[in-house]
Each structure stands twice: as structure tokens, then as C-alpha cells.
Amino acid sequence: MGRRSLQASIQGIAVLKKALKQKGGGQTYVAGAVGCSRQTIWSLLQGNPIDCDVFLAVCTELALQWEEIAAPEIAVPEDNAAIEALIETVRKQVHDNIQYRCGSMQVLDMAQPIGLDAIYTDVNVLRDITGRQRLDLAQLLQHAALEDFDRLGFTQVKVERVSGLEAVERFDKLMLLGKPGAGKTTFMKRLATLCSAGTFQAHRVPLFIPLRDFAEAKGQPGLLEYIGQQLTTLKVQATQTAESLLNHGRVLVLLDGLDEVREEDSKRVLQEIRFFADQFHTNAFVITCRIAAKEYTFQAFTDVEVADFNKKQIAGFVTKWFASKKLDKTARFLQRLEENQRIHELATSPLLLTLLCLIFEGRTDFPANRSELYEEGVDVLLKKWDGTRSIEREQVYKNLSLKRKEDLLSQIAFTTFEQGNYFFKQKAIEQHITTYIQNLPDAQTDPKTLLLDSEAILKSIEAQHGLLVARATGIYSFSHLTFHEYFTARRVEKRADLLEQLVRHVMETRWREVFLLTAGMLENADKLVQLMKTQIDQLVADDEKLQQFLHWANKKASSVEVSYKPAAVRAYYTFLDSALDSARALNRASDSASALASALASALASALDSALAHARDHALASALASAHALASALASAHASTHDHALARDLASTLASALASALKDTADPELRQALQMLKNQLPDLEGDQKAAKQWWQEHGQKWSEQLRAVMIQYCNIGHNWQFSPDQVQMLEQYFTANKLLVDCLNSDCYVTRSVREEIEATLLLPQSLPLNTHT
């Protein structure tokens, strides 16, 4: 015979298994009878070679003819030329099958598959697993200020990013972890097609194995036997060919979806992978699994995490997507994405980016009601992604339905958002879960059991849906701040008693999106907008000077005949006069000319950018406001800097503002007064030293004369002398009113009478002050 080892053929394995069932005692008995370990019998049944004498003894014990059980011996190529020839032969034989199984994708509601080559976008991986970072809350919060921060940066961890292909080249054994919809399977399919085409790891043959299919294969074959079965269907010389390539380290083994293996199959599959990877360790292995599915450990494997898409990857994917559909929508899509950072944030997930592209195909914009868009994204992660692929995952807690998961997430979101916590400790979240599930039917009452259930539920939400994710060891957040805001709003929408609690935050910028989402979710948003209006008005109701200011703005707006709504005109003049007052305060407080110019631009931006400025009266007011602020800036600039270029620019802009005011006024007396003031200014082209001296000696007085003219003829430019607290209060007041108007203009339902009442009373004083500017 001359063979030191023998292995069973595919047919032989089936005969062995049948004989073992008939033999009392099974594998353990036979192992004892022939003097080997049970592991040896198990390996034999996986199609692996075992010692020749043991093989013969097993066949004798089971009353089988070894020649009928053993796989026929084939010549194993020893030289490189023969191996290369075998690789080329097998690659050609599996090529069409690889293209069929891996050359396209069809997810979500796609009507037909799309070629992978047409849309594939290079994947990056993180060398350090996000959830395993040893960071505390303070370190994480460095990435996120509570009021405003880069929302994309919220989900990007500052660790080394490398190309996915580079990682496969660098590490022969790779465990690729990722959130749901991160693109793990798509990447594995890309590896398979590239290797099959000979453009990546050309010295190897790809074997793409969905682990769920392997785990549920009839007869529970070992990996080598299963590979042999797959190759047999492709008319390849089955197990012996596979073993020959594996023995020479010439296979790229792609094991996809470890998290999709059923619980009852998990132990067997893990054991088989470990045995197979150890036996054929010279080959390249890539295993994919969802983060937090379980703490799997494979010897000599390097763990990496699929990184979220960055802006370049998003643009590349979108360009390819619409090009493949022959739709000229790429530029519009990317523009709208750039304008809406919350939707842009979702686009960092390849799955959610695909959803956004599908939604955009038949329209020119994203839905006006963003809550409906976010709801669809949540629906994809909670139900559709696994459902469309017929994956049934273990239900950790049988009474925790999908709706209850949404309720639980909403409760967590509202509580943590109100506390200002974007990141939260694992134990705190587990306590929220415990509080929730202990009230469910048939809930456990033992505290220790409840705690274990809470931990399992948290892990299942992370692994199965990716809505909560680990940001560091023991620290979690929502996967996207957008989802944190969405579930916070959902909590309010489901609990009408929380509306009053919500409106307490109407002055806080970070709650803005929650208000807009809640308004869009409510069947009728009347109560919400009415509560917002009351809360906003109360902010300035007790400040006499601010009430005087609003009274003046209303009186000024009433004196102007325009086609705009009164509230819009009031808004224009409140912005204009408060901006002027802020600019004067900044000029008094600052010694830097460059800071003055910056403060000037910022202070006047809102007033000058208004559509009302196109009306004649408002154009005049804007020009005069600009002139006065510029004059104040020039006087301070000449007093504190030697930057002649800056002073010259300010003087030139002042001259243009005065020219505009002269053109826009229809009052001859005002025109005469302005002309007299203009004639006093030093010549722009004259001696700069003399101009500096003039502004130092007469600049402040000239500015006050211009302000007196503005008050006399236009009733603007009053020196309100707001305190810093009043300035801050006004900013909050304006911002909150803008939010209220945005809610009214959003895709929410508000009755006509409530809408008209709110619009008619926007920016009106709550009481008639005793003294006011006239």
C-alpha cells in the first residue's frame, strides 16, 4: 500500500457515519476499541487524513472494506510549476461560480442586482477595535463639546486606518469585525472576485464560504469535506485537490458571517474553524463577524474593525451608484448631503448610504420630514437587514419585541440626552434595561438574573442592530447622534406629558433637532408650538429694557409700508438695532483692529442678509447701519493699530455704504445731512498719515453725529447699552424664535388658527413699558 495516512472519501464519510450510528457507543466506543482518541475519529469524519493503521482498524471494527471508504490517492504536485498549473486550472473551474455568487449585490428594496464592480468602494479598517479602547468618559468627551461639535467626528475614532486590501496582505489570518451594514460581506465578495481574476493574491485560489450555509449543511460535514462537496459540484477533483492546495498554502479562505451561525451550531463550527486553521495554517484566512456578537478568539488571528465611510468614500460610492443607474443626480445628492450634516452622519454607514441612494433615485431632495427618513433607517437596522436575508437570530429575552426595543431605546435616549450625556457607562445602560424589563410579563425577579439578562440584551442590540455601540471598554453611545436625537423625540411623541419637560430646553442649541423631529412626528403639533411660544416670551418678559426694545421694534415696523408680514419686519429691525448695539460694545471692549473687523462682520451678518433689505426703506437702514458700524471700527482701528491696509479697506467700505444710503433715501433733508457728513471725511486717495490723525481726533464724534442723523430721520441706531447678560438673553430669544418659525415651516401639522396666532404675535412685547425710544 505504501501510504502512511489515509482519508475517507465523501461517500466513505457518509458510510462511516451510518455505521457509527448502528454501532453502540458511537465515536467514543470505536476510539477505545482501536486505541486512539475520540478527536482522531472526529477528524476522520471531517475528511482529514489519519494514520493508516488506525484507519484500517476503524474500518475493521465497523465491518467495512477500507478500499471502499478511502479516497483514491492522487499525485500531489511537488514542484512550483505543477502547483501553479493546478492553481490556474482550479481558478478557471471556480471562476464562473465566484462571479455568480460574489459578482453582484442586491439589498433592501433593490429591484434587481447591481454589479459589484460598478459600485464597489474601497474599504478601510481600524487597527484598534473601538470598543476595546482603554478610555474614560473625559477622554471621549474631548471629541464632543456638549453644545456643538463635528457630528461626523463623533463617530470617527482617532486610530490608525489602513486599506482593507492592505490589511489582508499584511496579515495572513484576519478577523474582520464590523457593525451591521458596515460592508463586511461586500468586502469578502470583492476579495473573492479579485483573487479569482488573479489581480489580488494571484498565487492563491479563493474559497468563499458563508458560515451559515456550512453550519446548516446536510450531514454536518467538516470544512474540508464541505469544500470538497462544493468543488465536486464544479467538476473539480474534490477533496484531494483542495487538500493539495491547502497543504501548499495556496488558498485564500474566506469565512463569512460567523455571527449568523445558529446558537446550536456555534460550538461545532468554532471547533471546526480552529482545527482547520491550525491544520492548514500556511494559507490566508479572513473571517467576518459583527462586533459584540460574541468574544470569539482564534489563535494567531489579528482583529481589525471595518471603519465608517469618510467623505471621500461617500462621494465615490454615490458617484458610482448613480452612474450605474444612468441618473444625473450625483452632484445634487452630495450638495444636499453637505447641507444636512445629520443625514450626512448616517451616510457613513454603507447600508444606510445605500438606503439614502435608493430614496433619492425618484426625487430631487431628501424627505422634508426627516423623522420619516430616520424611521426608515431605524426600520432597516431593526428588521429589514436580517429579515431580507432570512437570518433568524437568537432572542435573548422572549418578551422584548421589536416595538419594545424601540421603546427601551427611546427611554435610554431621552434620559441620557436630557442629562447631556452622549456617552454613557455600560452599567448605567444595563440599569436602564433592568428597570424596563422587570415590568414585562413573565419577567425575572432575581436581581442577579435581571442583571445578566440586561447585559445580554445590550450586547444583542449592539450586535444585531448596531444602534448602540461600544466607544471604549465599558462605555457606550448611540451609533449616530442622529439616532440619539430621533429616539429622544420618539419618547416625547409617545408621551404627551413630556412636552412641557421638552420646552424647558427651547433655548438650548443642542435640542434644536429634537424639537424639529418631535414636531414632525406628532399627529397634531399645536400644543408643542404653543408651549414653545409661551416659554420663549417668558424669557424676556421681566426685563424692562428688552421689553422697551421690542416695543420700539414693533412701532418702527408698523411705520413702514411693505408687503412682508409684520413679524418679519419686526425681526429685521430687532436684528439690525441689536447688531449695531453689539458692534458698539465690541468696539469699546477690543483693542485689536482685526478683531474689530471680524466682530463687525459677525454682528451685521444677520441684518444685512435679510430678504427685507431689498425693499427701499430697509436698504437705506442697512446702509446706514453698515456706515455707522464701519465708522466706529475705523475710529478704534486708527487708535490701536498701524495696519494701514485694513484701515484703507474699512474707509473704502464706509464710502460705499454712504453712497448707497444717499442713493436709497428719498428725503432731501436726510440726503443733505448725509452729504455734509460725507464731505467731512478725509480723501481716500490723500495722505494716509493725515487720515489717521483725522480719525483719531474726529472719528468718534463723527460716528455719533451719524448715529444722531439715523435716529432723527430713520428711528434706528439707538444706544440701548445692553448688558452682557441682556445681549446673551437676546441671542437666546432670537435663536428660539427662529426654531419656532422653523417648526412651523417644517412638514408638521399645525392648525391654521394656531399658526396665524403665533405668527401675528412673534417678537411682540409682553407689556407696555413706562419709557421707550420713539
Describe the structure.
It is a single chain. By secondary structure, the chain is an alpha/beta fold. It is 60% helix and 7% strand. It contains 36 helices and 14 strands. The strands form four sheets. A seven-stranded mixed beta sheet has the order 6-5-11-7-10-9-8. It has a three-stranded antiparallel beta sheet with strand order 12-14-13. The longest helix is centred in the C-terminal third of the chain and has 27 residues, at 688-714. The termini are far apart. Mean pLDDT is 81; it is low at 144-153 and 586-615.
Question: How is the secondary structure organized here?
Answer:
Blueprint: E1 5-6, H1 10-22, H2 26-34, H3 38-45, E2 50-51, H4 52-61, H5 66-69, H6 80-102, E3 104-105, E4 114-115, H7 116-119, E5 124-126, H8 137-141, H9 151-154, E6 161-163, H10 164-170, E7 173-178, H11 184-197, E8 205-210, H12 211-215, H13 223-233, H14 238-247, E9 251-256, H15 263-279, E10 284-290, E11 302-306, H16 311-324, H17 330-339, H18 341-346, H19 350-360, H20 370-387, H21 402-418, E12 424-425, H22 426-437, H23 447-465, E13 468-472, E14 475-478, H24 481-494, H25 499-503, H26 512-521, H27 526-540, H28 544-558, H29 566-589, H30 593-608, H31 616-640, H32 644-664, H33 668-680, H34 688-714, H35 724-745, H36 752-761
Parallel strand pairs: 7-10, 7-11, 8-9, 9-10
Antiparallel strand pairs: 1-2, 3-4, 5-6, 5-11, 12-14, 13-14
Helix pairs in contact: 2-3, 2-4, 6-11, 13-14, 16-17, 21-24, 22-23, 24-26, 27-35, 28-29, 29-30, 29-31, 30-31, 31-32, 31-34, 32-33, 33-34
